[in-house]
Amino acid sequence: MLLQLKISNYALISESLINFRDGLTVITGETGAGKSILMGALSLVTGARADSSVIKQGEKKTVVEAQFDVSNYNLKPFFDENDLDYEDITTIRREILDSGKSRSFINDTPVNLNQLKELGNFLIDIHSQHKTLEIFGESFQTGVLDAFAKNQALLSEYQGLYEKYRKTKSEVMALEKQASEAQKESEYLHFRYDELAKAALQEGEQKELEDELDILTHNEDIKIAVSTSSMLIISAEEGTVLQKLKEAENELNKIAAYYPKAQELSSRIQSAYIELDDIGRELDSLNENTEYSPERLDFVNSRLTTIYNLQKKFSVSTVEELIRQRDELKKRLDLIDTSDERISDLKKQLKEIESQLTLSAEKITQSRKNAIEGLKTEVVALLSSLGIPDGRFDAEFSLSSDFLPNGKDGIKFMFSANKNVPLSDLSKTASGGELSRLMLCLKYILSRSTKLPTIIFDEIDTGISGDVAGKTGQMFKKIAGFMQVICITHLPQVAAKGSHHFKVFKHEEDGIIRSDIKELDDNERVMEIAGMLSGEKISAAALENAKELLQI
Fold it and tell me: Which domains does the chain have, with CATH numbers?
């Protein structure tokens, strides 16, 4: 519900603060007084586009701020999805700068225009003569019938299945496309995979082979060095390192009894002897096992050439990267090999979902057809009360071959305002005034069945008068029993039905024409309605008539 509207420097309005309440609020004023300015300001906070032309002359920016009680609209998911702070009393602010730029805020958090528009759709429905054209939309017509038929539960079930159907169908199509594209390159993929698989690559293999190649290439030098080192350490001939150590140890042992330091050094020499003896034996073993093998050298060279060629071909620098490419190719080939099976399984799922969706759509269709008679009866009765006594109304059904977001029905409202005129499409038969009254009837029906936002009727009562005007006002009041209604009107009969009455007026201040708005008290309402009845010169009869309309 709209609680407050604050306008600063918008068109002819300098500063205006309007507090709204529930029920029916009427707004009146002379033509050109600024009622359209008020509507423009409200449009801004619900996401309408604007430029610097709306800024009051001489000012730097326009600011429009509105407060809404959103506690009954279940809007917390919207705030969570858009990372906004939720407040039961939510403030929307829109600023238009003289540079032409626009800034929007929800509870002081900056938002973009799409977010503002999305929230605005939940909060305000501005209904003007121009917007009556939405009555031609199939989605609106279907929505009216569904609301009247109380199809919310059926639609919820259908839409859940429809979402599963849509996702599964998209998955099938994507898989079929992938399979088709993969099949085209299957031969090439197999060729590349087979080349890598045949190589039987092992992690760490390249480093081992390169190290071994170094050894095999320098085999003769290694053999000489190992053999010479072994001989110097452990040869049986005198003069070897071990022989010299043993002699040194014996000499130190001779003096160990009276020179304790010699014993310590003798022990250290013994440890060195053991270590060198072990080294010598290992060198001897290496000497015996180091053999020159031309065959092994050829194998290592050939293996490394294979690895280097593969690395160049696949644009990588390590065996590990080649192995990763091999494994990825294997996965892609496995997908190709199993895609038919996966697609077949998904198609079975899709067929099952289609069966469920068809049954759900049939329930919705039947519910709509069951409800249409009641809707026809009520619309015709309401039209009669609004001055179209011979009005007829019906709905034409068509069945779509495809699943639609709300079922399989195509629904087209049919209308005739006169006895001898056959029913036909709304766009072909109804005049502007007839469309406005039909839309009012449908909005009244919707207001009873659906949680609608605040609705603003902007002079949709144009072209009616007398008793019909009074009944129109009564219908506005009935709608206001279900939701907040703000009605801009030029009809005294409608204005008199309001629970709250505001007047938009122009006045001159410091030589400048300004617009303003004020809430009228009981006496001011009598004078305003009397003026609407008789013009500038208010007669006694007009005053009495105004009091009668206001039931004072």
Answer: 1-129+454-518 (3.40.50.300), 189-332 (no CATH), 521-552 (no CATH)
